[in-house]
């Protein structure tokens, strides 16, 4: 009798050491919270000290998996009547879903975009955990992801990653793999407005006279500054795109960092009218004998459509290269290297090549050019971006704008005498 009491007392003492372990009939049972529900599972183990410790270790392992988001109810309790309720056919791991999502997304985007999307998705899913079940993700997990991403990455990069993973999560939500609201948790970080940093005319002069040692470089830099073309568009220009008689450039393609060709950023070709310096630069470039024969290139229009252009590069690394085997076309990274070399030689403050585009826009605006015309030249859908990005340069002329408008109104009044007499006044009161 005393031994039975001692044994019972020993079991009670052992049970008291472990939370979530209890006796159910003649067996041990563990309890834990899973998806905000209290779960109880009988283990079928007799009540002994060793089994109590085993049950405690099992429960600790389950809690750890729940915390990591890798807990699979059916794997631990395959015979449980609750396994079907807690582990539905929609329970899929993030890594598996990602591999399923990628080819479905790829049909709507170009190969270059697919590469960038894939890189961003891989990084985000690695941080979230490939083996985690999508169904257990919480908004808190996405918030943690944001913190991890911003620790050592640029804000613009992080925002690209968050936008990409938000698309993946929306797909998961629409197919019932995860709870609603996760995509909305991918809030982008606010970015301070980066004002354009255009070159001054003195800096441009230094670039052209000191930085550029070869006539082709002098012409290329002039063309970039006086056309506002994007670096990828500059590098993809062909001799066949230039119309010297009319003074036009037909911007029909851009080149990627991988050396593949695509449509310009807006997805549509455009025509750029040339200022005299740009026209002279085109004459110089066309007068230089090309080391690259006319050949065919493939321009990717959409994921499923391409166009074959038979063209000759306007700018080519082969012109000054010492190597025998070299890409006949500049890619943006190679153009960036050349641009940096020219800047160092000119001893001006370093800027990205894209600032040549900003220089063009700012010079046009301070010269009080027509907004619609400038936007069309630069390949914008409308002039909204000009107003948002270059407002400071537009405001520079504001003190004289009243007189400028008034002179225009007077000219119109002279053309139409039937306008009110006040429009013919020679002076305007400030």
From TrEMBL:
Molecular functions per Gene Ontology: DNA binding
Q: Which UniProt keywords apply?
A: DNA integration, DNA recombination, DNA-binding
Q: Boundaries of each Tyr recombinase domain copy?
A: 194-407
Name of one Pfam family that matches: Phage_integrase
Asked if the keyword DNA-binding belongs to this entry, the reply reads yes
Family annotation (PANTHER family): PHAGE INTEGRASE-RELATED (PTHR30349), PROPHAGE INTEGRASE INTR-RELATED (PTHR30349:SF36)
Q: What is this protein called?
A: Arm DNA-binding domain-containing protein
> Which organism is this protein's natural source?
Azotobacter bryophylli
């Amino acid at each position: 009798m005393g031994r039975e009491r001692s044994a019972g007392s020993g079991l009670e003492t052992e049970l008291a050491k472990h939370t979530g372990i209890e006796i159910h009939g003649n067996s041990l049972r563990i309890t834990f919270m899973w998806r905000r529900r209290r779960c109880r599972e009988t283990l079928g183990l007799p009540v002994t000290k060793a089994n109590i410790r085993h049950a405690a270790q099992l429960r600790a392992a389950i809690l750890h998996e729940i915390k990591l988001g890798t807990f699979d109810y059916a794997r631990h309790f395959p015979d449980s009547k609750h396994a079907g309720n807690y582990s539905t056919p929609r329970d899929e791991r993030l890594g598996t879903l990602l591999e399923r999502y990628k080819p479905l997304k790829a049909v709507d985007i170009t190969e270059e975009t697919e590469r960038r999307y894939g890189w961003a998705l891989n990084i985000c899913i690695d941080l979230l955990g490939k083996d985690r079940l999508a169904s257990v993700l919480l908004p808190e997990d996405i918030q943690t992801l944001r913190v991890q991403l911003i620790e050592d990455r640029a804000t613009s990069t992080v925002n690209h990653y968050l936008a990409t993973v938000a698309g993946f999560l929306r797909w998961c939500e629409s197919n019932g793999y995860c709870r609603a609201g996760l995509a909305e948790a991918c809030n982008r970080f606010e970015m301070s407005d980066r004002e354009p940093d255009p070159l001054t005319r003195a800096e441009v002069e230094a670039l052209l006279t000191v930085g550029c040692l070869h006539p082709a470089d002098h012409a290329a830099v002039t063309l970039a500054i006086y056309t506002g073309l994007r670096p990828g568009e500059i590098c993809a220009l062909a001799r066949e795109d230039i119309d010297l008689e009319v003074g036009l450039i037909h911007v029909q393609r851009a080149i990627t960092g991988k050396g593949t060709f695509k449509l310009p950023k807006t997805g549509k070709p455009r025509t750029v009218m040339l200022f005299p310096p740009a026209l002279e630069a085109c004459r110089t470039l066309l007068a230089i004998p090309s080391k690259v024969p006319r050949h065919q290139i493939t321009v990717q229009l959409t994921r499923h459509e391409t166009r074959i252009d038979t063209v000759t590069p306007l700018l080519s690394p082969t012109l000054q290269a010492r190597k025998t085997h070299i890409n006949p076309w500049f890619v943006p990274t190679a153009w960036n290297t050349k641009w940096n070399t020219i800047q160092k030689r000119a001893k001006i403050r370093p800027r990205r090549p894209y600032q040549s585009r900003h220089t063009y826009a700012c010079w046009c605006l301070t010269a009080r050019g027509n907004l619609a015309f400038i936007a069309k030249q630069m390949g914008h859908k409308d002039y909204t971006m000009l107003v948002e990005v270059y407002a400071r340069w537009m405001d520079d002329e504001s003190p004289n704008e009243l007189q400028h408008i008034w002179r225009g109104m007077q000219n119109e009044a002279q053309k139409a005498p039937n306008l009110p007499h006040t429009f013919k006044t020679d002076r305007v009161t400030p």
